[in-house]
Amino acid sequence: MSKSKTPRRLPDNEAQAVGRMLRTSDRKLNLVAQSIRGKSASKALAELTFSTKRIAQSVKKVLQSAVANAENNHNLDVDDLIVSEAWVGKNIMMKRFHARGRGKGARILKPFSEITIVVRQPQEETA
Predict the structure, then answer these.
(1) What domains sit in the chain, N to C, each tagged with a CATH number?
(2) Please, is 84 exposed, middle or buried when counting C-beta atoms within 10 Å of its C-beta (0-12, 13-18, 19+)?
(3) What region, left, alpha or beta, does residue 65 occupy, with left being phi > 0 and alpha being psi -120 to 50 degrees?
(4) Which of 5, 15, 46, 85 has the CB geometry, 3.0–4.6 Å to 70, for a possible disulfide?
(5) Residues 88-120: tens digit of each pLDDT
């Protein structure tokens, strides 16, 4: 007796991938996510490949994972995929300290973030 299977949250023409524990702030990661929203998957991959942002390589891996999920798990056509959603969330905050004068200490916060990318194959309109 096992638990019943949870229904799929996404429609059949969508696939997603999540990247967790990315070592950057959510504000910096959101700049990269905004640059790929609404674009085709191939154009988004090209933009991430030549981006000057350090975190763009990690976002590119997540996008490639979403495309692979669409192809292998949901039998979607890779050439038609578009990045329908890309959202960013906060993760843990690593806390360090920096020694200061007179025996005091200053806090250093090192943020982590996560990104979720949803790719969609548009429906063919029947006339």
Answers:
(1) 14-120 (3.90.470.10)
(2) middle
(3) alpha
(4) 15
(5) 999 999 999 999 999 999 999 999 999 999 999
